[in-house]
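We store amino acids, tokens; thus:
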Amino acid sequence: MKNESKTDSRLLDFIKKADKKPLREGKGAVIYTRVSSKEQADNNTSLETQKRFCEEYCMKKGYPIKKYFGGTFESAKTDERKEFDKLIAYAKKERTTEAIIVYSYDRFSRSGANAAFLTEELQKAGIRLIAVSQEVDTTTPTGKFQKNIMLMFSQFDNDQRRDKSTTGMRENLRQGYWINSIPFGYTNLHKKEKAKNHKYIINTDGKLLKKAFELKAEARLTYKEIVKELNLLGCKIHYKSFSRILSNVFYCGYVTNSLIPNEIYKGHHPALVSEELFFKANNIIPKNSSKGTPKKFKIAELPLKTFAKDEISLSPFTGYKQKGIYYYKTRHTGTCINVTAKHLNNLFISELKTFEFAKENSQKLKEAISLEINKKLKSQIDEQAIIKSQLTEISKKIEKLEVRFIEGEINKELFGKYSNVYIVQQKDLKEKLSLVSITSSNLEEMIEKGLQLAENISGIWALSDFDDKKKLQELVFPDGILYNKEMDKVRTSKSNSIFEAISLLAKGFDKNKNAPLIKKGQDSHSVGAARFELATSTSQMWRDNRATLRPENFLLLLTKGCGEGGSRTHGTV
């Protein structure tokens, strides 16, 4: 029965209203074209075809074209593309835009469900996505379903392509071919070809990186110190990536990848370092170095392990503990030399004390050493001057060549030919200069720090931790020390040039009574409480400056001048 009763007009204020449609102030359209590879973009055929069909559609439907987007190559795997992002931002902001026109849905996106969600959000903002080759009415449920199915198929097709590509990459890796970006230190001569045709060579950075592996294997420098040294030599490597580089098996001739987890294969590229050096740089113990329970290698009481050798058999000393006492013993079978760790350590402290001198005479000693070193390094300084002169001449030749080219005296071919020759010569000379480069400032700095260290070197060594003890003793005696059990003597075949110079010159001054440069009363093996504060502060100086004082720096700048140091023999302590 029809209800004919009147409705109170006041209820009309409570009637539900229809949802407001987003207000678009015009019927403008934007066109988006895209290809998925640079080769397609360079060819341009596909882009032009897409653009032509989209323009014809807009003309037919009466859509004024507001702007064009794309026109280049962008991957459709994600919706994080530069041109794509500009398109979406413009369409949302520009109120006169009602439609985004594409050739097909896969040109818009291949991200499946994510693309469907994005088009839904655009539609809520009053923007329709129209594919001219797959035209459906997306305002109806059936049309939306069809559009989403097309987007999902685009993703399915993309996933199939990726799977096929991944299968090929896995096969290349298992055959030993590198598929990723060129590793630091290498140059790929055939980078535009397939992985199987790539040809890798070790470049200048690679040669310097090999030195970094060696420095890390020697355990004398920290990561930061090694990276700093590389940067000074012109090798631009970042500290944060250095540890990752060191652990990359590519550098010892192998390939591995997350695409082939738990697999490793011999590569076709040249190895930068040997496997042995790679393992050593990464602190990997050789397979047969120990059996059973792992040994503790850093024992504070045994800093001379492997550094000290038996003088007769040349067998290096290892260590052990018995009844609370630490001992050194020879490692090789057939030798049987034992000595308490305390006794050999004290012999070594006495050896270090031979370098010490009185602080009040440091300036006089510094002047004498500087004079001696400059005399010895004269040939190297002369060579440096010759190279600088040659570099100046090369620079003048390059400038003259440029002027002749600009004035039309020579053509581009001749200019390129001769300029390349000069540039190669210039590069070679700069490399030579970096190897012999010596300045008064860096010599003075080394001598100054060497003297600071030598002044109380025995105390610094005694108070340092295991690692710093090793670095300091290797700095002073690069070839280690020899111990003669029968004579109870320590011998050294070679000492660092700067410390050898300090010792010899100080003794010379003392002998001539010019100045009492050698400390008196150096018989004690221990560092007394009265000297604890001095030793501690100097030990901190050693830690702060050990990169400057490391053996490579001394040997590079000083060994040629002062000699490698003679045989040093001292009696029983």
Summary: Confidence is low (pLDDT under 50) at residues 287-295, 513-539, 547-573. The longest strand covers residues 65-73.
